[in-house]
Amino acid sequence: MSSWRDAILHDFIPNVSKLTLVADPDCLLIEEKLALELRGRGFDLIEFSDPVEFRYAYESKYRTIWDRDEHTDLVVVLHLQDTDLESLPYDLLHTGRKLSFNLGGLFPNFSYTVVEKLDRSLLDLLFDAQRKSPPNRMGDNATKDFILRHVFGIASELIVNEVDLLRTLLRLHYGKIQLSPILAERLIQVLEGYGGFSGWPLSKIVLDDEAFFTFLQERWPLFLSKLGNAYKVREGSSVYKLTYSGPEHLPFDHQDIKVYIDNLFIERKLIPVEIKGIEVDGKSWIRSGIATTNVDDKELRFTRLFDLVEKELPTTEARYSDWTVFAQKWAELSSLVHCSGSKEHRVRLIKIGDALNTTFSSWLAEHYSSLINLPPTNMAMLHHVPRRLARDIEGSAGRVALIVVDGLALDQWVTIRQLLQKQDANLVMREFATFAWIPTLTSVSRQSIFSGKPPLYFPSSIHSTNSEDKHWKQFWEGQGLSRLDVAYQRSLGDGNAADVLDSLIHPGKTKVVGLVVDKVDKIMHGMQLGSAGMHNQIKQWCQDGFLAELIGQLLEYDYEVWLTADHGNIQCEGKGSPSEGAIAETRGERVRVYPTPELRAHVAEAFSFAQEWQPIGLPEAYFPLVSGGHDAFVKPGDVIVGHGGAAIEEVIVPLIKLEKRK
Length: 662
Known about the structure:
Elements: H1 4-9, E1 19-23, H2 32-40, E2 44-47, H3 51-67, E3 74-78, H4 90-95, E4 97-100, H5 103-106, H6 112-115, H7 123-132, H8 140-150, H9 162-174, H10 181-194, H11 202-205, H12 209-217, H13 220-225, H14 255-266, H15 295-311, H16 320-340, H17 343-367, H18 384-393, E5 400-405, H19 410-423, E6 427-435, H20 442-451, H21 468-478, E7 486-492, H22 497-504, E8 512-517, H23 519-525, H24 530-543, H25 546-556, E9 560-564, E10 570-574, E11 586-587, E12 591-594, H26 597-604, E13 610-612, E14 623-627, E15 631-632, E16 639-642, H27 648-651, E17 652-660
Parallel strand pairs: 1-3, 1-4, 2-3, 5-8, 5-9, 7-8, 10-15
Antiparallel strand pairs: 6-17, 9-17, 10-16, 11-12, 12-14, 13-14
Helix pairs in contact: 8-10, 9-14, 15-16, 16-17, 16-19, 16-24, 19-24, 20-21, 23-24
């Protein structure tokens, strides 16, 4: 077998059985590439978790097909640990064939407790290593060492000096390669056993990328002090106190280290510092880490960010995580251009964006459906967010707050982040990104957040947001909370945030808070100055302090605070509006929704820029026609900022965990 997937796909031959029941405790069938391959063979996957939700989808879609004597290749997947297929309803057991898969069968010589913590996207590397160098039966530590070496390229015993350690950590954290805690703890154990890193805060900088970048940030001016006398810092001096223990001086100028440092400053994972008295050549890698008002230095960041995104454009074969990582870099560039770029910069951004969204559109057509049923651990889609939060506080006395900033694009978050950092230096922002629902409409995507479900399960309210409060409380009731433990409030963004919270929650009793800040969406729908105007008005709003106060007060009340958006937005130009009377149920600037595919196809013939989006995860009689690129269903030549389409700026949205630095 060339892949671990082959062992599973061998049992999935089309037209063998209309219904297949699979015990899949390790969530193998919903791994991104395997789910895509099964879909390509004609199999539909549906998860059996909530019996009521399952029965609705099963009866409304598949039973009606069977009643017409038509064939399906339906796979019902049971993911729960310590359960077997016999727990499924009798009518399924009577009809379907039964299969079972687990990691123990695929990787018999490794410790199951270690392998099952591994992200499923990494199983390919482990399977290849197992095939090339078949191991004997391994215990926990031997399995951890094997995975660190063959999957992550980390030979722990060969990390013997600070350059080795920094190079390893830079590759992990800059590349957003996340070690599971069990592997990180093994790496720390080996490094501490070596004894050469005593005093280093290994437990923090190995596990936590934010801690690692802070560790580097506070040592950067000490490195610069060696190049000039501006800081006059002496060894062991108390003039410059370090938050994290460890050596004061790091080898930033080592050839294996400095290749990362330049990009870290360009992407603002590290912040340039102000310093005088140092003469640095314009082409030096150090230049990006020194804050100046020099026009040439600003142009240098534009040039390097443009080069970076052009070099790293994902392909149609990329994983969803490749797109979310890239989207964050694209957002850094977009924010810079919209806030301080020239006309030439904007033209170049649009040109790259058109090529980017062409590739992204092709990728969505093939891969988007495989994201829906992924485990909520990594929150690939917005409806995973409350499910992950529920896991975080399960069985604990913890409290959680979710802030949904309606319409906030990822590049606009970059602009907000910079202001929040100035307003509260102790605010820690752990940045991720996730996929919104398509079409990127508030009534579709925001309801999905507060219900924790795909839109398929709320057909009666798909055109409205008035049921969000009910959805939110029903979700948490399903997690064992009382309605009295749950709060929800929308239409926020102005006034005194502390007063809003005082009237909404009891800090000692309310366990879950859902908040909708709709100020950005209001700015967008009145915007006449394009993306640059959006950033300018968002800056002005953020400077008023409502968002910073809201976050700070929630943290003060000891909530775990997350922030996300239901969709982003994009500047676009009108290409004409359909004359369709009342046949469209939704008439947006970037999307039209029709009750039948025939009505949609008729309109699509006249608008070649629009895409007939497959109703993935959507209710019956809901057929979107979404705009592509920078086009919109408005008067030709009119420039607007809108949403509803499938551009990367609309689909991939910020997902931020907010904490106080202790």
